Amino acid sequence: MKVAMSGASGFVANALKQRFPDFVVIERGDDVEAIRQKLVGVQAVFNLAGAPIVAKWDEAYKKVLYSSRIDTTKKLVEAINQSDVEHFISTSAVGIYPNNIPCDESTQKFGEDFLGQLALAWEHEAQKCTKRTTILRFGVVLGRDGGALEKMLPAFKMGLGGIIGDGRMVTSWIDLDDLVSIYAFVLEQKCEGIFNATAPEPLTNFHFTKILGKVLHRPTFIPVPSFIIKMLFGEGSTVLLDSKEAYPKALLEKGFVFRYPDLESSLRKILA
Questions:
Q1: How many other CB atoms are there within 10 angstroms of residue 27's CB atom?
Q2: For residues 105 and 231, what is the distance between their CA atoms, to the nearest angstrom?
Q3: Could you tell me the domains of the chain?
């Protein structure tokens, strides 16, 4: 299958290139006509474009976050609707959900903060596609050589890792290998609609931290106060401090089987 990817230099895209080696890259600067020409002979489009969300937000950077997702998706959808592409897989995030409540795809309440509204607008643009459309709401993606784990490991390996704040916030996560398999699954099964791309066992930050320390054989005694995260990232600290408890109900009902449903099995594979 020939696929096209936006955001093709990212952590997830690099893994998808291994599974789907026949691909074309859609650049952020491509206009609709340029995209349409690149889509000739393409069966599926993966929309992964978006400026990094774990960063210090100011009003200017919020505009970058918005434009890199919404404006790119608008162009993609317009081009896809004029093409022979069969399947559009767009990205969203569990940040769309409210804090501190268990959520699955049937949840109709959404976060009212910037991140929640950004994800909602992103999905709204993707749903204007007239071809088969799947939206994957990513949890925290764990894998080698990138993503959240790469940022966390140096401190943990030095024995300086610890819980954030009180450790009660819930992290919904996904192993990168399972995420790539989800793309293959929804293509093969011709799935449409919204799916939480998260492992079936979300964890509190406390338990996440303890399992990571156990796998690395390192202590996890030094907590990171929430105010330090807020000082470093400003409003962007919500990405690290919010509690998002999401379950992949729709994928499980479709019959998808996770290779790494629990954090310890994922980490032992990644860090082997």
A1: 13
A2: 33
A3: 3-146+173-200+245-259 (3.40.50.720)
DSSP for 157-224 reads HTT----BTTS--EE-EEEHHHHHHHHHHHHHTT--EEEEES-S--EEHHHHHHHHHHHHT------B
Tell me the mean pLDDT in the region 179-201.
98
Determine phi and psi for 15, rounding to 5 degrees: -70, -40
**Measuring CA to CA, which residue among 8, 46, 198 is closest to residue 134?**
46
Residue 106, CA distances (Å) to 103, 163, 203, 247, 248 in order: 8, 31, 21, 10, 11
pTM: 0.95
Closest alpha carbon to 122 in 59, 200, 45, 65? 65
The pLDDT mean for the chain works out to: 94
Q: What percent of the chain has pLDDT over 90?
A: 80
Handedness of CA 272, 200, 155, 149 (dihedral sign): positive
Please name the residue ranges forming H helices in the chain.
Answer: 11-19, 32-38, 59-66, 72-81, 114-126, 147-157, 176-188, 205-216, 226-233, 238-241, 249-254, 263-270
Count CB-CB contacts under 10 A for residue 249: 16
Q: How many CB atoms lie within 10 A of CB 241?
A: 16
Residues 257, 184, 260, 269, Cα dihedral to 10°: 150
Nearest to 48 by CA among 269, 260, 197: 197
